Amino acid sequence: FAALSFPGVAAAQTPSQVNLWVADLTYESGTVHIGGPHKLTADRGINSQPSFTRDGKSIVFVRRDSADGQGDVYRIDLATGSETRITNTPEMENSPSILPDGNMMVIRWTPPTLFKEWGPWIYDTKGIPLRGVLPGPDTVGYFTPLDATTIAMMQPKTHNAIGLFDTRTGKLTDYDFTVANLPPQRIPGQRAISYTRVDSVAGNSIRRLDLRTHDTTTIAPAIPKKTVHAWTPRGTILMAKGNVVYSLTPPAKTWTQVTSFTDPELQDVNAYVVSPRGDKLILISPVKPVARC
Q1: Number of other residues whose CB lies within 10 A of the CB of residue 19
Q2: Cis peptide leading into 276, omega within 30 of 0?
């Protein structure tokens, strides 16, 4: 299942260590600038799926310390670098997101069941599983809470789908198909989300789902063969490929290079998420870049 893989890591091989990095973002005359990245995870395991706490001062993420799929949720304070383990369960937790009440939503599963046993769950602040989100187990891979009653979810069915779950009715409705296995992204200043639709022939594209009308439209072509994108609060999209980070501000359709990295550990980066204030960017990069054919 694709959600078992990590950006920049070959699924067919035993993955190397994958680190999270943080870089400062600044803005000048409408242009975003990226400072020198700082490594957060110190070569400890396979680190992925970071998201910011609501105050932007910390991130939560998943660490796998073994190749058997087991992993737990951790938290890092960005000011001090202090790291805290949140969950310590026999299950695997994926895609952590802190909710307004301080609890956490994760995808809870065990490797042998391949996401078919649990699905989205609410955990308390101590990392204890409390209750399921959906009426029953489901193959939801990633999600983004949108408001008190709506959660955007990626469903890896026959054709990977982007859908909306209504907590009042318990109904999950799909709206677009063959999308990348990634959390849907809120579009700043709009009642809409974005996601990447995968097309091996025409090329990947960043798409928009209007949360009022449920219309789907194309925002821009994605960087070739890439799927991970992040929005700044000012409405600029960031994507990375190799050692280069690019930006695009809709309605523009052409990507502009923002920066490139010389560090040998930053040669296969993904620009994963931007802080709520727009001042921090979290990058994901393997210690050893994947060999390209």
Answers
A1: 23
A2: no
Task: Tell me the two tokens of residue 277.
Answer: 């204030």
- Is the pLDDT reported for residue 7 higher than 50? no
Q: Give pTM, 2 decimals.
A: 0.91
Per-residue model confidence (pLDDT) at position 293: 46
User: Cα(108)–Cα(143) distance, rounded to whole angstroms?
Assistant: 12
pLDDT digits (tens, 9 = 90+) for 151-194: 999 987 667 999 999 999 999 999 999 999 999 999 999 999 99
Instruction: Yes or no: say if 229 and 283 are a contact pair by the CB < 8 Å rule.
Output: no
Please provide the DSSP assignment of 115-133 as one string. Answer: TSS-EEEEE-TTS-EEEES
Cα–Cα distance between 120 and 138 in angstroms, integer? 8
Q: CA-CA distance, 154 to 166, in Å (whole number)?
A: 14
Please state, in angstroms and as integers, the Cα–Cα distance from residue 257 to each residue in 178, 239, 242, 290, following that order.
28, 10, 12, 22
Measured distance CA(115)–CA(216) in Å, rounded: 27
pLDDT for 186: 97
Measured CA distances, 149 to 146, 152, 170 (Å): 8, 10, 10
Smallest Cα–Cα separation from 46: which of 17, 21, 71?
17
Question: Is the Cα torsion angle 187, 34, 242, 70 positive or negative in sign?
Answer: negative
